[in-house]
Amino acid sequence: NAGVTQTPKFQVLKTGQSMTLQCAQDMNHEYMSWYRQDPGMGLRLIHYSVGAGITDQGEVPNGYNVSRSTTEDFPLRLLSAAPSQTSVYFCASSPGTLAPNLKETQYFGPGTRLLVL
Amino acid sequence: RKEVEQDPGPFNVPEGATVAFNCTYSNSASQSFFWYRQDCRKEPKLLMSVYSSGNEDGRFTAQLNRASQYISLLIRDSKLSDSATYLCVVTDNYGQNFVFGPGTRLSVLP
Fold first, then answer.
1. A73 vs chain B: nearest CA distance in angstroms?
2. Beta strands in chain B, from DSSP E residues, in sequence order
3. Who's near B52: CB < 8 A, 6+ residues apart?
């Protein structure tokens, strides 16, 4: 059981280039999400999905697209990279809505470090 | 006002010390609450969920005060391995999306 996997681990892009960050989970989780983490700002939600075929925007969606064609995969696309998108990106998954006092939570992948020059 | 606020830190404490982290949140409809720890250049990992009645896991104790919208984490008998950033996390009204605090960094010194 690999959990949540992300590729690549590290990427350098030039301004204007596009790329896709891959995320996969093998826990049959309904909910998947993408966050970015910047110094002093904590993790911020970019996009999320509550199941295959369903996606929605989070707090900072501009410049990013997502799709969810299968339960397992949730790729994040940068359409035209900008230096402001230099960040660490984390993908996460959970079984679904987290009711209080249930012993479940979101599980995070190891992250992708992106540098946009 | 940020949705989730934490002590700015960093906290530098000697081994064996007791350290307390504080967190406040603005959304009174938040349903679930967690403490995560994040080691340098690693992903966040669940430390413990925070239950309404409070809960303890070994040296770690978490408390929740819904009326004050306040969460705390107490670490007793600090170990060098406790050095990390501690993230306070609450869910949104629907119990699915996470809202993270900025984190408080802890360094336990020998």
1. 18
2. 4-6, 11-14, 19-25, 33-38, 45-49, 55-57, 60-65, 70-75, 84-91, 98-100, 104-109
3. A100, A101, B64, B66
For residue B35, the model assigns a pLDDT of: 95
Cross-chain Cβ contact A100/B51 below 8 Å:
yes
Residues in B touching A90 (Cβ below 8 Å): 43-44
Q: What is the pLDDT of residues A76-114, one digit of tens each?
A: 999 999 999 999 999 999 887 665 555 678 899 999 999
Residue B100 to residue B103: CA distance in whole angstroms:
8
Q: Is A83 on the interface with B (CB under 8 A)?
A: no
Mean pLDDT of all residues in A43-68: 95
Q: Which residues contact B97 (CB under 8 A, 6 or more apart)?
A: A33, A45, A48, A58, B91
> What is the number of H-type helices and E-type strands within chain A?
0, 11
pLDDT digits (tens, 9 = 90+) for B30-41: 888 999 999 998
φ, ψ of residue B27 to 5 degrees: the values are -90, 105
pLDDT of A32 higher than 90: yes
First to last CA, chain B: 37
